[in-house]
């Protein structure tokens, strides 16, 4: 008597990848472009792109079998303070990275090189019940699962547009000080100084299918170059690709690019505002067609209420570094200072800058967009389910009560404590991702707490008691 073995998720992915039409189309595109090598890439918990490269001649084999990766890569192969590798040790089984055919692209700066984003699965040689199932720490596939479940339950889709700010140091350009009387914000003469940088970024983005929109300069050397909003998964892919483009442009121009959230005490931070809308089909449910002034529909109010209810706990994801919390602490620099909402006040956690759009301001330039969107989807659904009211906008006169929502945490350590207590946020990540992310970030916080900084030397290093 034999027992039929059901196909695993890995088996089903292999079947999709080896469909004759799909293989022929990809092989044709690769041959036409003259592609010689292909990157098989995944995204780590910290938002880095890692993976393997293989000759294009191995396309068919790799579409069927994928490539093998050690799961420690998902925590950047970080070794904790105790000496143990975080997430997976030397004896851990490798996982299988299967190309996502829809993600295929060709590098515009070297058209002989192409890439796929990959989905991660437990290796086929693992025990039955484990073999072939999706890897829980695969942040990109995790967002797709979270968003799919949300859509199945609510009929809604989250679309987003991101405003990534970056700081550039370009050889040959004299520094513009923060103490100059004239601000560099939106100043076209200052923008012109960085023309070799922004022209390449825009061109490479367009070549990869981004609909580039507008951009500006803020602080000295700080650029913000935006692209059109889209479904959350597409936008998340584009953010990590945009950062990859920036690093390539830095190599080509001899510049240095930084995504550090707060590079100088007196300067603006590098944020990554998430502009959010909810769609049922092609209708934005945050828009009431009968009204034209700034407003929120009932669905919009409840979505906003859910976001605000979980903003404090979500900050561990939105501000993922020790440095992130310096951005929230500096008054007068347009970063969010408190958990409330408003129309024009740039210091609110959420702004309604236009009809049908919520601007969520806590995320910074080092955010992992797959995790941030997964958490926002869960917070929105919680608000819709509980019909959470956000209260009046801050700039409506009376203001949102100061104690209505938990305050923004002041440090990464405090943020991790809030994260652990919020079941909606941890539920959005799932138990395995929560444990792995928390371990990674707790180790980062502990290392900082044990480090002696320049500030301490300046404050305490001269003289005695």
From TrEMBL:
SUPFAM superfamilies reported for this sequence? Glutamine synthetase, N-terminal domain, Glutamine synthetase/guanido kinase
Enumerate the Pfam families for this protein.
Gln-synt_C
- Location of the region described as Disordered in the Swiss-Prot/TrEMBL record: 384-403
Which Gene3D superfamilies does this entry report, sorted A to Z? Glutamine synthetase, N-terminal domain, Glutamine synthetase/guanido kinase, catalytic domain
| SMART domains, per the entry | Gln-synt_C
The GS catalytic domain, residue ranges: 139-465
Sorted alphabetically, which keywords does the UniProt record give? Ligase
A GO MF annotation of the entry reads:
glutamine synthetase activity
* Any single GO BP term: glutamine biosynthetic process
Q: Does the keyword Chloroplast apply?
A: no
Q: Where are the transmembrane segments?
A: none
Its family remark reads: Belongs to the glutamine synthetase family.
**Matching PANTHER family, A to Z?**
GAMMA-GLUTAMYLPUTRESCINE SYNTHETASE, GLUTAMINE SYNTHETASE
Protein name per its UniProtKB record: Glutamine synthetase
